Amino acid sequence: MVERLISFSLRNRIIVLLISAFMFGWGIYEVMHNPVDAIPDLSENQVIVFTEWMGRSPQIIEDQITYPLVSNLQGIPKIKSIRGTSMFGMSFVYIIFEENVDIYWARTRVTERLSFAQKLLPEGIIPTLGPDGTGVGHIFWYTLDAKGYDLGEQRALQDWYIKFALQTVKGVSEVASFGGFQKQYQIVIDPIKLNYYNLSMMDVLKSVKANNNDVGGRKFEMSDKSYIVRGLGYIKSIEEIENISLSTSNNVPIRIKDVGAVQMGGDIRYGIFDENGEGEKVGGIVVMRYNENADAVIKSVKVKMEEVEKGLPEGVKFHVAYDRSELIEEAISSVKGTLIEVFISVSIIVLLFLFHWRSALIILIQIPIAVASSFILLNLFGFSSNIMSLTGIALAIGVIVDDGIVMVENSYRHLSEFQSEE
Length: 422
Prior knowledge:
By secondary structure, this protein is α+β, with helices and mostly antiparallel strands. The chain has 13 helices and 14 strands.
């Protein structure tokens, strides 16, 4: 079989050259479209369901949220396993699908089943799906360099401006915020005063909720003009909260400021984010979607950050904390360096031992063709260019060179023996 293949190749050199050129061109095309990442994605094919019910113990979360969700999500087809975790105020359900299942098909099936399972949960509790990213999807971290701005202002800037802008980048699943304070109005109730006025905490909650709302009216016409009537009632300051009426006593309104104090504060924090021991920082984590090109997504994020930075307040800048593209570029440059070293060393060795430049050219031609063709198989089986695959290609280059040298040297020897016999 090998002899026939060699004979056919020798008799049909033009066909062999055309096939080689086609494989090389196809391989170059696949190289341009192959996803590039630093680390291979070995995470499971999973969908995460997150449910929040603040203030409840893990046992209540387990009985009323995690168990009903796990029981009802088990009927989804092509599921490998389901894992549930309950903690204070939060529930996580991990649905592990089979490897050949499309992740977006899986998310659709989970969403359909949640529409029924939600009826079994406590009133007002809505489970949500986690981002469509993998365990290695954290490709880019950044912090804000904002001297003169407190942590609450930085977090508000991150949550209401930067985050929304970066989430529009193609390939980005989520931008997770970290650090700082999430601003909120806080009402500190004095229980003695509350009891004196014969009020309860629910009275305070209902009054605040009822007085923080816009209401709609109707449209009417007067003097050939149309007017829209609406009530503007959203809270805009601490004073407005303090003056909310809870009840009346002898025709005198009892306000919130009569039973407690109102202040601007931050939400409960379970940790802080410190960068290099220089103090607290506010920033975000860019999470990539499934099967996206990490290098291309990071480049798009950097371009978007340049646009966003123009609209930031004076003195606020981005500081990159983690950039996976640096590792990706180092891996690619390592393979490029290996190829260049192989080209030079093979050329020198073949020329020194055989004194035949065409023999060296034969070996050098097969290296780029073999490397380019390997990317056809990478794309065919859905593998990205990462440290593992690029390292395998770099190691395989040595085998290709050894094979080429042996075959050229053997052919050269047979030709010499044939010429000496004549």
